[in-house]
Structure formats: structure tokens, C-alpha cells
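S.,

Sequence below, as promised.
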Amino acid sequence: MPRYGRVENSVTGDEAELVLERLRVLYAAEVGMTDRWLGKLLESVRRLDHERETVIVLVRKSFCSLREARAWRARARVDLSLGRLDAPSKLMLAEAAERWLSEARAGVVRTRSGDRYKPSALRSYDQALRARLLPRFGAKRLSALSRPMLQQLVDELVGQGCAPSTVHNAVLPLRAIYRRALQPAETMWLCRYSGMHPE
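The prediction came back faster than expected:
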């Protein structure tokens, strides 16, 4: 197990400054490497045209060893598949939706291409939120919504005979809201929400 503490407790004088400088350089290198590979991941998602069906969540967590990190990842995958892995957000969907709509109408929030949302698109998002999403999930924290919950809604809409485009449009606002509202949490994973976009 690594020892944690102030550098001055382990080394002194000029040696301490050398150790601190090395730590700064290593940290800057790790940040640069992470930024570079995250950029490559995002470019690949864009190039493969998976943006509409992909959610990327960045989460912060650090480990003492690779073994500990792998064990956490294995547990997290199980929790994620069971809908038990939450990002630490206190923001309710109703509040996030209202904020998103307000900012989109003002032109603060834009489409992925940088354009303002068209009034017809905003009306469609607003209608889907008020008719399908907010009555059911409005009082839930963003981090409490899970894929199984959304899949249940999709299944119910399909069972009611809704057209695939209606089902797609019913959950479409969530992607935009989450893209705007979610902050980095404990690690990074990539989820394909294929069940949310039936064809």
C-alpha cells in the first residue's frame, strides 16, 4: 500500500523540491494523456456516427493499484447493468428540464453543430417532457434515472402501439438534458442506449 503524506515528511531540502517538480511533471503528463485519449474516443464516436445512441459519462475516482481499479470496474459494471450505479447529482429532472428549455430558448444551449434550436424542435421537446417524462420522472434526481426505468417506458409505449418515431421522440429530450447537466463523477464508461432508440 502506498504511503500518503506531505513530501517534507519523507525528504527534505533540495531533494524535496526535486520530488515535487517530478510529481508536477508526471501529473501534467497524465492530464495531457487523458485529454488526448478522451479526444480520440470522442472523435471515434463521431466518426462512426454513434453520437445519437451513445452516452459517455466521465467519473472521478483514484486507486492505489491497478488490481484495485480492476476490481472496482468489475463491481461497477454489475451495478451499472442492474441500474444501481448513480452519478452524484442532486438535480431533479424537472429542474434540469426547465433550465435546459429556458437556456435553449435564449440561445445559450445549442445543438451539437452549434446552431440555435429551432422553435419547432423546442416545442417538440417541451411536449415530450410534459406528456411523457416529467409526470413519471420529474421528481427523480438525474443520477437516479436508470436504463431499466427508461426501457420500461419505451416498452410501455411500444406496447401501446406507438410508432417508433413517437417512442424515439419521447425520450429524445433526455439526451440533450443529460449532456448539459451531468458533471464528471467517479470513472468513465461508455453506454450504448440502443433500447432507447427502436427503429
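The first helix runs from residue 13 to 47.

Coffee later?
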